[in-house]
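Example complex used in Figure S2.
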Amino acid sequence: GAGVSQSPSNKVTEKGKDVELRCDPISGHTALYWYRQSLGQGLEFLIYFQGNSAPDKSGLPSDRFSAERTGGSVSTLTIQRTQQEDSAVYLCASSLRDSEAFFGQGTRLTVV
Amino acid sequence: AQKVTQAQTEISVVEKEDVTLDCVYETRDTTYYLFWYKQPPSGELVFLIRRNSFDEQNEISGRYSWNFQKSTSSFNFTITASQVVDSAVYFCALSSPNFNKFYFGSGTKLNVKP
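Predicted assembly (226 residues):
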């Protein structure tokens, strides 16, 4: 597609369940980022991929969070044993190398 | 450390007024990049502009203009003759030379009333 695509758009899950969030970057973009935005807050960096490698995963809040990227394209962010504080909008962005990032519409995660 | 400060949490103006959104940044890098993004109520962040640290030329795009001043570490954004459709949250961001991370300010919510 023309832009960054994220799925699902909305996800409601029970506390303690695992969730997977998907990001399809813009074709040809080598860099991919995950950010988290809590209600009314700014953007919190989670992880950066260049190709399939993640040289910067310093923002992952705990070992319950993990992410992978395959084929230099699709990325999956996995949250294990979800907690209520994980509720937020998870934003994915992609970019050409050393260039501005373009964001997807986000996945709104609600943990009940 | 890298840091972006947007001191204005929320601004309300009446349509056709000019409005300036402030952005102050901190970095130890000699080369860096600055950005503005718009987040309308729909939620998707929209890229507006990128400025390189070695280029202090101001830029104008239609009703939008940006003022970059390295001496004061500021990258302010002005909307001239604001319109209701400009209502959104605006984020200023900073990237280091290797683009491994974008540091975002906390955002300024702009309300443009008819």
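The interface with chain B takes residues 31, 33, 35, 41-43, 45, 48, 50, 55-56, 59, 89, 91, 93, 95, 97-106 of chain A (CB under 8 Å). Chain A has one domain: 5-111.
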